[in-house]
Amino acid sequence: MVSSSPTPEFTFTPWKNPANHQLAAAALCTFVLIFFLSYFSTIFLISLLAIAITAVLKPAAQNLEKQGINAFGASVLIYFLFLFVLFAAGLLLAPQILSEIRALQQLALQTSNTPGNSYSLAIISAFAKKINLLNSLQLQQNIAGHYFHYYASFLQGAARFSTTFFYSIPHLLLFLIAVFFLLKDSDALHRKIIAAVPNRFLEFASTGGERIRHDLSAYFRRLCTIVVINATIYGLSFYLLGLPFPVLLGIFAGLTAGTPVLGSIIGIIPVALTGIAVFNNSAILFVLAGLFAGINFIQTVFFRYYAATLPVKIHPLSILAAIIIGATVWGVWGVVFAVPAAICLIFVSKQILWGMQNFHF
Amino acid sequence: MFPQDSNNRDEILEVLRLVPLFSQMTKKELIAFQEISHHRFFKANEPVFWEGEPGVGMYIIKNGSIAVCKISPEKGKEELAILRRGEFFGELALIDEGPRSATCLAHENAEIIGIFRPDLLKLLERKPRLGNKFFFRFTTLLGKRLIATQKENKKLRNQLEKSNIII
After folding, report:
1. Which domains are delineated in chain B?
2. B53 in reach of chain A (CB within 8 A)
3. Any idea what the Cα angle at residue A215 is, between residues A53 and A211, rounded to 5°?
């Protein structure tokens, strides 16, 4: 007689699997990025920039406190030092940046009024000699038209981006006020937020909140260092190469250097497009590729500490997805800030999951 | 920007003075600790923390009482101690994030003051002299507690030997 073993009951409980929690958190972050942040993009970006700058300035203020200066005095002193550096940098770079913005706007206007260009057509014809598929003149003209359409769109986007960044006095004031109050009151604000947390979440909010604050501050500090170092090196290199808009392109390349894996590739695109348009010679691509590779090599050798450490591991595909979503929602701003924003969201989600797994909520 | 109620501050300072860890601190030093403390109200039977949760910080009882318990499916809730005003618990979490060794519940409505490790470490980083003083006091108390535990251990061992139980 064969005894039949009882059939195990099948229960479908995906919400109990921690791996699914991470997936749900990622989906939620994507949802938030796509649907909500576009409405608050300016405020969000100003806050993100203010938090990043505060993360850089705060340790300096704390060092002064260790020397015996009180917390308020240390914050005010560091803030005025920051204002001085910002003012000096503005004084040095503002005329160049303003002239570059004007030239960029003019170029964007010219390019958008010129559908297609003989030079882009010449490049595509050269490719057509090697790739049979491109041997139709109609196709070549279409590709050339598309190429210039995208280039014109990028230039317009870049002009808008620069105008928003450098011309917007209210945004600058809001940013400076936010930095001041975050520097002076971030500890008190943190405590006020924790004071509002119910008893059961108090310990988690205290430890998880502090971990988020500490690790993201360290990340923002590294990010700012990478951006400043890269923007300076790239800007100087473009100036020496004789490229137009060296400061704006340098700032863009510096900002994208904060994006792991794909940052250099994104940074090189506008520079390469500008290089081809100005020099009418594809050899400039090799020069630029060599330049970017050289700077990345220097960075890997000398600034490994800043380049290598992220608060969370992030897959290149996630980076690509974040950039696409960011670019769709915020345009050029999104390309630059999507990955740092995604890294912050993933890190915060991970801390919340850690809390859910370790505390009895 | 965020003013504090001075009456409440004085009350917290008064309770901190009752705790041996802070008993030798000056008023200025106590204010530094008061500034990082969290003042909380717990209803009767409300958990402060559960056994096994990561240790985050210590609590000092300002008013009411707290029950230290072991809760198991076999024995249910087993009260190990009842702590009252001025007494403190969870202090080992200030130096180690290891899991809590017991559950603490409000025995009756209670007002407690929490001091958490992240805030403490930041304070001590900013004020290293205060840090030295605090940890010297902390280790002195731990040392005294270790000596007391050893004495208790010896006493129990003697009792077991007298009753001819071999261990």
Report:
1. 6-123 (2.60.120.10)
2. yes
3. 125
